[in-house]
Amino acid sequence: xxxxxxxAVLEDARTIAEYAIKLVAQHQDYDLRRFSRLASVEQAARFxxxxxxxxxAAVLVAEAKxxxxxxxxxxxxxxxxxxxxxxxxxxxxxYVDEDARGQNAGKLLIEESIKTAEKLGADKLMLSxxxxxxxAKYFFERNGFKLTMVEMMLDLTEExxxx
Length: 163
Prior knowledge:
Blueprint: E1 3-7, H1 13-30, H2 41-51, E2 57-64, E3 67-80, E4 85-96, H3 105-119, E5 124-126, H4 134-142
Parallel strand pairs: 4-5
Antiparallel strand pairs: 1-2, 2-3, 3-4
Helix pairs in contact: 1-2
């Protein structure tokens, strides 16, 4: 199957949103306390639809046989004080439909995300990956990403033990 990546348009927003909700569910399966479901498909469609027109962001879609099989969402930040970054783009989301995995869609989305980040003015592309998502960690490392930070969480609703 031949996969092509292109910039998303407003009409793609619903399909992207459906994949985004699947991505949220995947993360919630890893850790329900850490990952919240912040939006419905309709709300996500509005969000990603708006991002197709943003000057500091881009939504990409991977297509095979005329059907969207995955997406990526990139956002540029000139200065990010909380993360001590300048001129960085964040790959906030990347998802490939299960039926299309192993057919190069993810790699092509990464390659186009890199080009898009550079066009937005970034000199680095950042991402976060769920600690339990070993497949994604391996995929990102194979595509040149390196570990630079480790996120940790203390659940303030759990009983604390005395050590």
